[in-house]
Amino acid sequence: MASKTLRAGDTAARSNNIQKAISDYEQAVKCDVTKTGTTSNNDGIPDYLKGLVNRNTAVLRKTISPVLAQKMLIILVKELHIMTNSVAKMKNKTTVVKKSRENNQWEFSHAIAFWGLMILLFLPPYFRGLFFQPEQERALISTAVIFWFAWLWKWSKRDNEFLSHPLDYFVLAFPIVYLISAFQAANYGLAVDEVVKTILYFLVYWLASRLIRDEKDITTILHVIYISALGVALAGLATTTGIIHINDGFKDGRIYSSFQYPNALASYLAAVTFIGFYLWRRTGISFTISTGEEQKKVPIRLSTEFFFQYLYTAGNFLLFTVFLGTKSQGGLLVFSLMLVIFIAGLPKGGRIPVFIHILLTGAFSGLAAWRFVSVAVNKSNGSAWFWLFAGLVLALVGQALYSLTERKGLLQWITVHRKGILAVILLTVLAGCAGVSVYVNTHTGEVRALLQLDDIHLRSAIERFYFYRDALKMFALRPLLGWGGGGWQEAYRSFQSYMYNSNQVHNDYLQIMVETGILGLLTITGIWASFLRIAHQLYQGARENVPARTLFWIITVAAVSIGAHAAIDFDLSLSAITLVLFTLFGIMRSFLAHPAADVEKKKNNKYVPPNNAVLAGASIASALILFFGGCLATAYSSYINVIQAKSYDQALSLIQKAIAYNPFNPIYYDDTNPPIPSLYHVDLLHLYQAQGKLDDAMAASMRAVELSKYNANSYADLSTLYSANKKTPEAVQAAEKALSLAPFQIQWYEFLSKTYLIAGYNELTAGKRDEAKEYFEKAEGVPAKIQIRMDTLSDEEKRLWKDAPPMTVTPTVKLSVGASQYLLGQWTEADSNLKATLDDDKNKGEAFLWLAVLRNKQDRAQEAQDFLAQAKKLSPDLAKDYEQLKSLPVLRR
Fold first, then answer.
1. pLDDT in tens, 257-306
2. How do residues 809-863 score in pLDDT, each as one tens digit?
3. Who has greater pLDDT, 660 or 84?
4. DSSP state of 248
5. Element (H, E) at 649
6. Which of 321-335, 540-554, 626-640, 728-742 is least confident?
7. Contacts for 681-687: CB closer than 8 Å, 24+ residues apart
């Protein structure tokens, strides 16, 4: 495990029981202790540890008697030495296969798999947090290759173990549950995407838990995660000041960086900041136990540990600065709570140093973040970087002062005077409260502005409770298997309490519950329960091993930090964060001995043939995953290439290829929102429609509806096709379905009123007067539908409605209503609604046309000609229908 530590602060903390310590020491000297290193007498203590005693005795002489201090230090060093040998013995037990040329020649496979995993952990944050499907598919392909090399290495070691701990089974159950729920998914394309993500998470967890062989591997993984996060932080600072451009990397005074979402970035940086605290502390521990001989030969300022403490200080400063620059209220709340838990759980002797480091780094990071962002908003980029570097220099100066005072006995002094220090801190807090009170009373304007800002955040919190309530509605309808992956995104508009736009629940556990039902909820609960059980066992079992206990604790805190914030946001939807989380799960799992080790130990002295069936099975599994990911990636590539097509035939060929490789994605059949503006619609429906193949277009539209059952746009396109084919009842039914799927979106009321008008027109021209009258009356009733829906809202829901204007009768609705009223013979009402439409640029041309028809029926020929002239000017194509419209019979009630 990590290097062992001895802190004089621990010694002073035991000064209340000095006599008992002396007795324990005398008993320990009599024990038969395994000796390592060079010793000068029978006590089994190496000379380098005795050097540590001698170096620290002078410090303790200032607080307790010299003799007792000497003996106490010897006791602690003795315990440390015994613990070191115990850990060494435990490590020796993990050897499972006798070394030979045969298995050593496959060691390269471990290197490929391990460093492949490192690349997989390093890169995702720079690809939009791995939030989008194409990047996830490419990551899955890479992981499948890494998975095969890992099995090649295990095969060479005769290690056939795949799953053995409850955590293994629960993590594997995660993709299985998503796969099962996909069979009844609300959107099959989104369900497939979630299966891709969860397979990726399992593979990364399994790789991390199996490829780790020692503490060096763990440290390497933590450093890769840490350095990657530093790159993300620097990218955020650079895009804030315009040095580089990241789309939505800095917006509204908040740093988004490559994640393009500040709250998720805050969660990610918070977790990695805790890792940074551990790396800083670990270097401090390593520095403390440097041998006496080394310290005599190498100046402290030139030691490696001394240098790395400054590097970690700078890194932690940057991470925390950008974390604060995200201005994530939820992120700051979760971090603050976890920080208290983190410090409380650290082993004694580590709390004060880490607290001082956090205090110094946090103070200067806060100053730098505040000034950097506020200045950058005003485009003063030079000043922004000045404040950042000033904060960095202050943080490094603080580290230098801490290092100096630590060597002078700072920690011992704090231990002895802790009561007085606590009193000073308490008085400082009280003085701060008094200062805040004075500020509030003398700066009422600024306080009112702050309260308004808090009201915004409070509104955001209330909104999320509505999301949660609506998620529970969906869960209640499908409690067992849920709505499939992406179920919330697909269907939430059918259940929302008021109009809001949110493709995520903003609570990953509720989202899992919506998507996979009780089975998914039990699975994610099992994952966390198993992880925390392992963490508790390891933490409690390492009471005397301070470095190991610290490592177990930091992995737990970093993981729980991500998991806690995921309860109030959608962090786990960004796979870059989830990969870090499942890697931490895997690291914790790696500390447990695999059951295969005991079997292999028995075989250590005899030849064990490789199990080729296991390698074959792993190869097949890897090939299947590779094929699965490859098909999806090829399909998306063809879909994107449609945009570059030179003709409709070429575009049609490409989209058909995309469908052949992934027949479950509805956007390939009907996509009303293509990723890049194009000359062609990049979906099968519109390509067929453009070529006049209406039957094929209809088939494509119906397939889109089958794959995306709660997409109002798909039903609207289907309704349009039905109308074009004169299938009036089907067109109306599809339009009504679209409205029922999104009852708080005004465009579907507009579409429905238009569909009713067209349906009535088609029936009227077909001589079906009664059916026509029914549809015109339904069009006339659309404004009442809008009012009824708005009346269902409470005052609070109306106040929270901000993502769109409140629903009212729009000019588009009034146009359809006015035209229907004209054909129903309600000319006064028709005239009023049509005139009300003239102020709308989008509809005024058609409104002039209907007014011309109305004036013609009223025998006001000049006005009719004037309105027609306006119609021809604004909408010449529509004006061509004038003769046909004025010939329509008017229905009388």
1. 999 999 999 999 999 999 999 999 888 665 443 333 444 444 445 456 66
2. 999 999 999 999 999 999 999 999 999 999 999 999 999 999 999 999 988 999 9
3. 660
4. T
5. helix 648-661
6. 540-554
7. 682/639, 682/642, 682/643, 682/651, 682/655, 683/655, 684/652, 684/655, 684/656, 684/659, 685/717, 685/721, 687/648, 687/651, 687/652, 687/655
**At 708, is the secondary structure helix, strand, or coil?**
strand
Query: Which candidate, 111, 148, 160, places its Cα nearest to that of 609?
Result: 160
Which alpha helices (DSSP H) does 708-745 contain, by range?
712-724, 728-741
Q: Which of 535, 550, 581 minimizes the C-alpha distance to 277? A: 550
Q: Name the residue among 188, 169, 177, 202 with its Cα closest to residue 481.
A: 177
List beta partners, residue 251.
254
CA distances from 618 to 582, 594, 595, 615 (A): 21, 18, 19, 5
d(CA 257, CA 243): 12
Q: For 781-824, where are the alpha helices, taking DSSP H only?
A: 782-791, 795-800, 811-823
| Chain mean pLDDT for the chain | 84
With tokens 């944050």, the residue in question is: 125
251 Ramachandran zone, left/alpha/beta (phi>0; psi -120 to 50): beta
Burial 266-278 (b: 16+ CB within 10 A, else e): bbbbbbbbbbbbb
The Cβ of residue 709 has, within 10 Å, a number of other Cβ atoms equal to: 18
C-alpha span between 473 and 484 (Å, rounded): 15
Global confidence as pTM: 0.84
**Is 250 in a helix, a strand, or coil?**
strand
DSSP bridge pairs for 708: 187
Query: Average pLDDT, stretch 352-373?
Result: 92
Instruction: Report CA torsion sign: 125, 128, 132, 133.
Output: negative
Residues 632 and 181 sit within 8 Å (Cβ to Cβ): no
Question: What torsion, rounded to 10 degrees, do the Cα atoms 301, 302, 303, 308 define?
Answer: 80
